[in-house]
Description:
Blueprint: H1 17-26, H2 37-51, H3 58-65, H4 69-81, E1 85-91, E2 99-104, E3 110-116, E4 120-127, E5 132-139, H5 146-160, E6 168-175, E7 179-180, E8 185-186, H6 200-208, E9 212-216, H7 217-232, H8 237-241, E10 283-289, E11 293-299, E12 302-304, H9 334-343, H10 347-365, E13 369-373, H11 375-379, H12 381-394, E14 403-406, H13 411-420
Parallel strand pairs: 3-6, 6-9, 10-13, 13-14
Antiparallel strand pairs: 1-2, 3-4, 4-5, 7-8, 10-11, 11-12
Helix pairs in contact: 2-4, 3-4, 5-6, 7-13, 9-10, 10-12
Amino acid sequence: xxxxxGxxxxGxxxxxxxxxxxxxxxxxxxxxxxxxxxxxxxxxLDLLRGAxxxxxxxxxxxxxxxxxxxxxxxxxxxxxxxxxxxxxxxAASTGGKPRTLLRLVPDVRHAVGxxxxxxxxxxxxxxxxxxxxxxxxxxxxxxxxxxxxxxAVVRAxxxxxxxxxxxxxxxxxAAPGPLDHRVGVMGRVTGxxxxxxxxxxxxxxxxLGLPVLLDKDTNAGAAAAAGAWLRATWPDADAEADxxxxxxxxxxxxxxxxxxxxxxxxxxxxxxxxxxAGGGPRTCVxxxxxxxxxxxxxxxxxxxxxxxxxxxxFGHQVLLLDGPPCRCGARGCVEVLCLEAVNRGxxxxxxxxxxxxxxxxxxxxxxxxxxxxxxxxxxAPDVFVARVGAVLAARRxxxxxxxxxxxxxxxxxxxxxxxxxxxxxxxx
Length: 428
């Protein structure tokens, strides 16, 4: 199994105390202070990831981050020495020196994502672009308790890891909630009381020797959906080359802490305009329909978890007063109504129930997209997209209703995306 990595960001999955402070200070805007070097590196890497294979020029990077061209040149030289950045070619000359474009090198670091479901486990290894390079899946008995699940995770990570390949930045683990993302401890998962209080993140970090991030499966699904959107909207090389310019290569000798005249621009002016440098949907909800129902909320360019990591309990909103009892203790919840329809083979009815609950969520949050995933959706994707869309279309509150679509990536991919997040300056 690969270790933490040697140089640059490899092996700093959750960052040092200084870097953590950098994120808290100003996560998405460049800050021209040497103490925030890691923060500025992450800004540049995030922009290059969003640009895809086409790359960006140094002047464009400076404009997006608010850093000086001299600072950007030093950052990209440092990242290049670490193998994270390479030349993407030259832009067409407009009369002067051909302009150099830079790109992220996806294969220089990897991360692993694991989806712990109630009856199966899936693990993937991804590159820095979020593309799956290895995967494994098999049965899991969540009821057997956390110790057996830990052993299953360790085996799965070993299966997808490549000891001779790029270093692993970390492992993201997505599990049924409730859980406390902040401290990595499981809550009282509905129907599985033995999991309450189990420090899953800490135990796995001890076994794997890698940084581990633990989050709810629905939050990982939201991260996966946003990551899939990002990859799907990568510009082509020719189009990107036409709009980028390169800073003078001699600027590498300048000090990185110089103040840039463009510091008011910030990353928010980039694709998407939402503070997410690489673009992606501004607001969306990911609705997971599997052995349970839940929602992941992607609001303002990142996953919204709530103060206690408890946001997204989509399946336990009551639709039918005095309806059938739900395992959460209430009656007539979305989850129990939907799963009853699934069990009797009425997928169209299940999709309509999800649609009604989704319409409530859209009315509350005013999101741009409703993205659907999970094994039940995968069994009848067209039915779910059509029926959920029809319910939203029938609501007259807002004619500009959100797009309804399939998520485009799985929960394990989202868990891996979360493990990559600190490298690009995002909260995990």
